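Researcher: Re-running this chain for the archive, since the previous output was lost when a drive failed. Same request as before.
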Amino acid sequence: MWATNVRFTIIFLAFANIFICNTLKLASIDKIYKKGLDAYASERWSECIAKFEDTLHLYKLHRIILINCRLKCDSNKWNSEIEEIEDVRIYEKFLNTRLCITDCQIKGFEDAHLNNMVSESVINDMNSKKPYEYLHICYFQMNAFPKAASAAYTYLSANPNDEKMKKNLEYYLDQPEVDANEVVDFESEVYKILYHLGIKEYNLKKWAETAANMEETLTDYLSWENMCRAECQHQSELEWSPEYSVTISNYMMSLVICKQNCQKKLESLNYDSGNSFLADVLNYLQISYYNLGRIEDAAKAVESYLLLIPNDEDMLSNKMIYSSLTDENNFSVRSDITYYFKRDKYERNILHKLYNSEIDNAIISMQE
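Model: Regenerated structure tokens:
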């Protein structure tokens, strides 16, 4: 497991301190969001901005508390005194995890003075970045064109096919107050920022800076995906069955599909999977380490790359070159890449098995 719990705890405490000191005591995200909608509808632009910004900040805090508790409780090692009889221990594990998450969330939300209850409709709006659709207009009405441009850009990051918002962004970019280089995604993941910085340094042949940025990119992406995967424990609609095993199976498959779909968020970087993205980062690393004379680190990056994409001819050629420069024992796969690869392969095999099973059942139904 990656060391994500400490990181999320630190982030959580930082957000908690901000909002405990804030006037929003025992805040309800639903109520504040509704106030933002009401202010927008009544053209109270200043209040509209304040309420939507508060909603976004509080939802981030809400999300961090939930994820922190899930990661913490999922990684706990439970000591069982129960004899291994049938599947009793797996029941005990889930019961212990349930108690851990419940206690953790109660304490987390109490400490943050935040109401835990958020409606499905508001959660959906937050995930689709709907508040930014309103915010860009509120900023525009207050002549805050740079913020309006960034709000429009943020909304487009989650809704890239929205033609109306594309035109809005084009309008903002034509304004003299707006510098295109300063238009940002308000919710851009850190790994994306680090990745683009790494490419910039690579193009300048600043190898040490490239290696540092790409190492941070790799670490942050793995942490981000763990965070995304933890969010999948919230399942709003499931197909239930009177058969216990079928119901549990439906939930587990929905969970695996959701976790695998985290990788779809790499499409904005033109990658179709975490494997391909990590391989690209490792490629930048092996080149940077080679130019820095760190051949052992380059060899490790090459071997890790080949675990993900074993038949890449260019990387196989690189391995032959490095083989003449360092000992064969230095060609080892990074532990974080090994864990990621094995987990991803296992989940894909499960989904492949399910897919084939559904086809077989469909064929049988047609024959009947």
